[in-house]
Amino acid sequence: MTYHCKMNRRKFLRTLVALGTAYGASPLIRGTWAQAGERARVRPGSLAELEAVVATSQGKGPVANTNAVIDVLGGMARFVSRGNFVAVKPNIAWNRSPAQGANTNPEVVATVVRACLQAGARQVVVFDRPCEDSRRTYRRSGIAEAAEAAGARVEHVRAGDFLETRIPKGKSLTSWPFHRYAFEADVFVNIAAAKDHNEAILTMAMKNLMGIMGGERGDIHRDIHQKLADASTVIQPDLNIIDATRIMVAHGPQGTSPDDLRSVDTVIASVNQVTADAYAAQSLPFENLPAGGLFGYIKAAGEMGLGETDLSRMTERKA
Fold it and tell me: pTM to 2 decimals?
């Protein structure tokens, strides 16, 4: 079975208008899509020295592992300054419970929220554009409750939140609407779940960024590997965290049974989503990967110079 998360533009707009109304927010539709021109998010130079650094923690549980990798990278205060607006994008794509492993572990999300607030963030917003109804995925995943309890504001996306953005270095994708928080937040944190994927092979940090993409996402699945690499030329989170508390090794991205999951009790972090994905693909016990562990979008991004894909060139810092 193939899962494209495909939704045509008219249906997407209608759904977001309904959600905006249901949650008391203006849908802010400006024509079809707001025009963002050349806007692009690039990591600040202060984090450049961490581009090839990967922090890992294993065997401590999701909360301690998450705190550990943040500390290894210098603490959340290295990323978040007092008064910052922080946008946190987990995987909340599926109407599945935490035990089913289809979304980011809610404890990992809550830990990141608390760390941001403790570093002085004035506001932390948690959001995603799910593949299923967000009112159900946010609730059943446990992420909405956990994030709010930690002090975040949980938002459902609206049509007017997406900004058409040129991708000058794109080879297959030259323009696409992205969620405005990818550009407007002072700090953008990407928290992915490590999973098998029937088309992309794996979904991790780079693939998780499809949740900030508007438009007909089914179109992204055509030449998906190059398009994900293209998107990474303009969307560069300040911090990428890969939740590998449980990894899904088969029948992704939703899974079919507990047999699809492996408990590895690991969290991985890097400022660079390509580096994070390359490390995770070659280090976690996934099945049926190409020889060497590298594939598709990771290779494409590496060839475009967007991150380190060679383990021997990475600096691994274990907590």
Answer: 0.88
